[in-house]
Amino acid sequence: MKGVLLDPAQIAKAAVDIAYDKKAADILLLDIREVAMYADYFVICSGSNPRQILTIAESIDEELSKQGVSLLHREGTADTGWILLDFGDVIVHVLAPKEREYYQLERLWSEAKTVVYLQ
Asked: What are its GO cellular component terms (predicted)?
């Protein structure tokens, strides 16, 4: 698939699939085009412990890289309970359950359209 440019929707759906393959919990894909100007999609998912959070984030980065999608910025660490991966039009949030409950990104972005929700 190298050399084929993916559109933001394809990148977001690929991130969802990769997170699902790595056993992420409560995977949510939000279309934020109508409510934000800096990105098209948010992928939000949970990992049960720091090792799983890191595995999910690294797998998404590695697999999307293989498909020609560059990671523009990365923030956070598994030990803090939140890793953010910025692929430009797609932003991926991998959180521990405690941090996800605290920050409630779903509530903050409640005006966004839910595209996919996998429990």
From this structure: cytoplasm
